[in-house]
Give the backbone structure.
Amino acid sequence: MTYVTFPQAKSLDFAAIGRLCIDLNANEINRPMEETMTFTKYVGGSPANITIGMSRLGMKTAFIGKIANDQMGRFIADYLQRNAIDTSNVVTDQTGAVTGLAFTEIKSPSDCSILMYRNNVADLKLTPGEVQESLIAQAKVLLISGTALAQSPSREAVFQALNYAKKHGAVIVFDLDYRPYTWTSPEETAVYYNLAAEKCDIILGTREEFDMMEQFEHNPEKDDQITAAKWFDYSAKIVIIKHGKEGSIAYTPDGIGHRAKSFPAKVVKTFGAGDSYAAGFIYGVMQGWTLEKSMEYGSAAACIVISSHSCSDAMPTAAQVDAYIERCNRGEITAS
Amino acid sequence: MTYVTFPQAKSLDFAAIGRLCIDLNANEINRPMEETMTFTKYVGGSPANITIGMSRLGMKTAFIGKIANDQMGRFIADYLQRNAIDTSNVVTDQTGAVTGLAFTEIKSPSDCSILMYRNNVADLKLTPGEVQESLIAQAKVLLISGTALAQSPSREAVFQALNYAKKHGAVIVFDLDYRPYTWTSPEETAVYYNLAAEKCDIILGTREEFDMMEQFEHNPEKDDQITAAKWFDYSAKIVIIKHGKEGSIAYTPDGIGHRAKSFPAKVVKTFGAGDSYAAGFIYGVMQGWTLEKSMEYGSAAACIVISSHSCSDAMPTAAQVDAYIERCNRGEITAS
Amino acid sequence: MTYVTFPQAKSLDFAAIGRLCIDLNANEINRPMEETMTFTKYVGGSPANITIGMSRLGMKTAFIGKIANDQMGRFIADYLQRNAIDTSNVVTDQTGAVTGLAFTEIKSPSDCSILMYRNNVADLKLTPGEVQESLIAQAKVLLISGTALAQSPSREAVFQALNYAKKHGAVIVFDLDYRPYTWTSPEETAVYYNLAAEKCDIILGTREEFDMMEQFEHNPEKDDQITAAKWFDYSAKIVIIKHGKEGSIAYTPDGIGHRAKSFPAKVVKTFGAGDSYAAGFIYGVMQGWTLEKSMEYGSAAACIVISSHSCSDAMPTAAQVDAYIERCNRGEITAS
Amino acid sequence: MTYVTFPQAKSLDFAAIGRLCIDLNANEINRPMEETMTFTKYVGGSPANITIGMSRLGMKTAFIGKIANDQMGRFIADYLQRNAIDTSNVVTDQTGAVTGLAFTEIKSPSDCSILMYRNNVADLKLTPGEVQESLIAQAKVLLISGTALAQSPSREAVFQALNYAKKHGAVIVFDLDYRPYTWTSPEETAVYYNLAAEKCDIILGTREEFDMMEQFEHNPEKDDQITAAKWFDYSAKIVIIKHGKEGSIAYTPDGIGHRAKSFPAKVVKTFGAGDSYAAGFIYGVMQGWTLEKSMEYGSAAACIVISSHSCSDAMPTAAQVDAYIERCNRGEITAS
């Protein structure tokens, strides 16, 4: 069954708005960061990673965001362009803002953390007036990311992008991507997450992220069906709730909770799993695949990324995802 | 024809959320404020004035807001209580915020201005967690005022109040009351005004206020019908657009632009006209009167206030409004 | 004995730098402010009051400060000019700052308090580049006030004024006037008070103000002699420490603690006592009087002010002070 | 001739207060940073580098500063300890501040730049109450660095450290180290630099740094003698003014301008030259050497650092400096 219909006549497959930053990944891993002496630079930020993933999968993509007027900002713009992502709506900050940084610490494959630099970052300075209506008018999908709601004026830029997407009929995907830093309070977070989610067609998040959004509501059992039903009353057609190791469930208005099998992986680190999953899943849905098949595809894409050192740079092509699934099916890959 | 149906079973006629402040009105008028030596203190703030007006007209009312923990804040709470307004959701700030002030300057009946003190004011510190769902659940009407959207956390408190009002079926009135100070940019203002207006049943504002809200849209002729139609696509049933001396028009989804006659007045100053108009109009609609009769009632209430020295303290009772209309009909009142 | 020598050739007797604000004095007194309905407007701020006092006593005076670009600011400039104070270095703010306010509450002659509005005030926005060296070069005395040290850029403007005063040989008077609001921490306060006091010839303050300045030092008995001795090691020639009802003592490097008799007064309120005392005392010292006679003169001036409704507007002329002392000497005035 | 006498009985040779941060040095050099993919982590910050230099030269040293409560902060503390620097007054921030970062770009040996991260950094959060008087009481030398004056509360901590150093007789060295970011305005900078410099015995800076300090003064020819003479009127005994390629001159109250010969070097980058020069020079003066010999020693230390990839980690031992001078004298080292 088809839960979401995409406006096929539009020329751009996918646009995302939000965070563009730099990951500085520890080269010497399996140790505390205090003992890491060198770091490698990658483009990062959840919506940036997803867009790179979509582009690698062959989609025509664009990004809406803001970069610092410095070497890091220029590196980001150049990397996006080299990945065939349209950067005509990537604006350069003129106020002296810096590029957000994420230093990664990989103590073990299952013990990873991030040291964030998010003060005065360029990506949160995108204004509503800088968002190009003409770009969104041509997009089949607009993806928004929760971190871009954390501060003004980026928050207002996202709401304006939602207005344009609604007006022009784009399918809207909301990747919750909640990160407490940069938010003033959980109450503030919940209010804006809910205002944005009301307008979205596909919502992806962890059970904990949905709990945060329900702090003013009554869902004492943290019941997925209650959570999903609320959004079906607004605009949603698919609500994916991720339960960590228990897997993800895609809820639909017909009451079904769709599940998919997962794949083994030789895990290096956990970063980037959600972003590659989102890219693979959205790609599948846009191909007209079942939700189950789309979720499987997302899972395979995620396995490839968590087996690698980087996030953005490891985003797979369709051929790589297909090959990974085949190798798993042949039993050639087992869990680490 | 009835455009709005009120939930009659509810026990509270009217609740408002937003600004509570102090007006310091020049005692020596018809001169620049530099030459005014003494000032008289009144409760002020648009939603406060409207609530006082509704209470004087005999409605059961409550206020949702925040006051400074000082003499000015205590004066406000006491005045509301003396006017039979429920203050159980008027919270006292504990952070050292001050009470907003508005010094009025009356150079002539038609040349009035205000000197505002809006830095670190208590009313903008109301949080979403402080808004009582149980109070809104009992209200037939919730009135929100644009100034409360100007800053966090008051902005989020208003959106949370809107959520509760929607959930419990209150009729929502939006008094635009746009004042540029305290807002960061016109773009930011437009984004939040539009997000709030989407959820409202009755919207009242000047043509200029609606223009501000349309800065990302195409209404080059500033056409009232285009303006109103947008909101009928969301939740609105009545959109009142005020055209200054040309009078106000109440638009309804049936395409009608309702107009009402106005009354003469011996004008002292223009402050408070909009607030008393809103109180009179909402009162009329709640009585089941036609929009035309409700607008006339609002106009008469406004005439009484602009003929007086204060705003809040001059809000009329129903008997006073009726008497004013009768005296006008008998030709006993002529314009100053 | 002469403790301080003034540069007699200079054309300006007295310049002060710092706070200019508005006092809003309760008209209905001997009650809580909640019950006060009207307020009268006066120029206020400790250095402004002292300068008005000096001008009334016949001195040639000037003020260095910043006013809001509004009706309150223009009232202040006009009042200073009408009191023959040179305002050529009173700068008008262009950033939208407001005029500081002080609402006075007079519950009884001995129970007075102030409700301050000090957010975004113009007086704290004076910059070092706006301080006119040429004006200070002509001044016999420069008075600085502690409140002007509370925030940047006013803080730096005061230090720059001190540089000019030192360079050109003005006698520097420091009126401590410590008010905790607007300061970030007691530690910060102590650091800047000490840096400023190092450069001053005459320091006036309460025992509590000197205690605040000594928080990083060892004076467990709060011994006046230890306090004064520290400043004699820098630039000070007179250190006046006020002990409330026990009276004030003027310490000098010769080890003497000078005391003066006080006068009775019919007290209305306590505000303004310190400012009128400072004006009377400095005036006396500039006349070449003994410290004891100068302190008496300050006390008499203070009695006149606390017997009146206002501070600035009640500052006496020399004839009024002389008359008050004579009447006291004749027993015509007794304490209230 | 001896210009400065050190309090030899004290147990600690050298203490510094101020910036502790992380340098992230480009591994792939001689290209724009956009093309640099990996970075190596070092301890940085001018006073940190000088203290490491002093420790390497055999001095007993301590640091007064504040580090972030994260992996970067712990790395800094550990590195200082491994370099035998007393960290008992290195405080850990508890407010969520981050570690300052400096990404270095080395386009060529003579075209180097830095990308700074200075928002919400831990080092600027040191408070005056955290500075240990007992530590400064035992120090022969206290070095302050201009960057620590850039913001509160670090600014006040430096002034408090100066108070303690004055009280206990430490020789105070001021390394101007002016960096415009983090300062609000040049005026503010000049005011605090001058207030600090008044209390210092040895002042080191570039001609441009002294120009910045003289913006309120009259030195139209930028005459070194006028500059130095001002500080001799306060506390200074040596004022070193650096003229880039024309070399440095050490001015003394006897009117002499001391110069020293320089050494050739195979330059990798210019970073760290000033810090190693300062360490070598102060070390020499503390040995009782002439200013000329001390300056030579500083120059040789600087040559070693600019021939290396890092700043802090390349600080030489005395044996290394001696060897470098000998090799230069034997003609074994020539300029790159």
Observations:
- The first helix of chain D runs from residue 46 to 56.
- The mean pLDDT of chain D is 96.
